[in-house]
Amino acid sequence: MTGTGPAGTAERVSTPRRWLVFEPVDTVAVRDGRAFDAGSNSVARVVLPHPGAVGGAVGAAYGARPGAGADRAEHGRSVPAALHGPVVVQRLDTGRWRARFPQPRVMVRDGEVWHRLAPPGDRDWDGVSSDLDGAALLPGPVGETGGWVDGAALGRFLTDPHAVARAGAAPWVTERRVGLARNDDRTARDGMLYSAEHLRPAVGGRVHGAGFAVGCVDPPDRAPADMVFLGGEGRRAQVHDWTSAGASGPLPDPPVDFGDGRVLLYLATPALFTGGWRPADADLRGGRLVAAAVGAPQEIALGRPDRRTGALTARRLLWAAPAGSVYFLDFGRDVAAAMLAAAAWHGSAFTPQHGGALATAGFGLALIGRW
């Protein structure tokens, strides 16, 4: 397996990776990064848990104190050294977990026909021009696509440059609940009626539940707790120790051949690149960014809850390249360099983005393919 090294690098590591699955007992309530105040806003929006939100649940599962992930001395002792994920998984009637991934943003639909975008020509990329240092932005879906693909379909997409990853049903449905803000004495406040969104696993047929799988690199040498808090509203999740997953867990295998020196990089989780929507050239291990399909930035709200008061501390709002983004890299027919980069990146966090705890929290989980 691979892991993240010093800033701007990625290196092979031999530490073990253990997968945990967090299965919500009821609904999931993780707020997006936009400000909300009952009375001023009518709807509190919800998003799927991002790496920062699930990272807190991982620490709680191992009994770590809040904020232990920011202390390098605690890595491998009370918290894992690094996290990879979360990856959405569905629990089937057989008891097995099936992975679901955001649809790659190079997929566009014309009526009933799906098309896969790619830079035009054979190393002649003049079809789309921009002022982005020679990298072309492909006109993929604007905003959230809402599309999801299973692990087998994504695996075919990564290994076959002509494979199409069609969108399937979403693993979650949105519920809207009505709330009323209260005064300090817990009486109702006039004019403070609002609506709050929750996510509930979409069950039916063979699907009996859903959760979030997280790869824990060099985890503490003890069994995780059976139940932890996940997200807001006091919601809980059951913790499954997915020992049968092996080191790769729900992640599809990478291609074995990069004979043309071209590498496709897919983001399974949002990435916090120092260059905003794009990785820095110095982090591309000799490759050149030719084109990308990215979409709108994703808002990531971070905070550390005080278990006694419920107040959030160390709050931050970040803008991330969204999951499902696709980057086209060219190594100029240098097959050896392409294969080394693919081996270093696949299934790992793609280079430390902001340093500190964010470099090991699960942001920028990369899967590698061909184009």
Describe, in short, the structure shown.
The protein is mainly beta and 371 residues long. It has 3 helices and 22 strands.
Structure description:
There is one protein chain. This protein has 371 residues and is mostly beta strands. The protein has one domain. Helices cover 8% and strands 36% of the residues. It has helices at residues 51-61, 151-159, 335-345; strands spanning 2-4, 10-12, 17-24, 43-44, 82-92, 97-102, 107-110, 113-116, 136-137, 148-150, 172-182, 188-201, 207-217, 227-229, 236-241, 262-267, 288-293, 298-305, 312-320, 326-330, 348-349, 365-369. The strands form 6 sheets. Strands 10-6-5-13-3-15-14 form a 7-stranded antiparallel beta sheet. A 6-stranded mixed beta sheet has the order 9-17-20-16-22-21, sandwiched between helices. It is globular. Residues 1-14 have low confidence and may be disordered.
Kindly name the structural category.
mainly beta
pLDDT < 50 stretches: 1-14
Fraction of residues in helix: under 10%
The profile of the biggest β sheet is: 7 strands, antiparallel
Q: How many angstroms separate the termini? A: 23 Å
Q: What global shape is seen?
A: globular
Sequence of strands across the biggest β-sheet: 10-6-5-13-3-15-14
Radius of gyration: 21 Å
Number of helices: 3
The number of strands is 22
**Overall domain count:** 1
Percent in strands = 35-45%
* Helix-strand pattern: EEEEHEEEEEEHEEEEEEEEEEHEE
Question: What do the pLDDT scores average to?
Answer: 81
Properties at a glance:
371 residues; mainly beta; seven-stranded antiparallel sheet; six-stranded mixed sheet; 22 strands; disordered N terminus
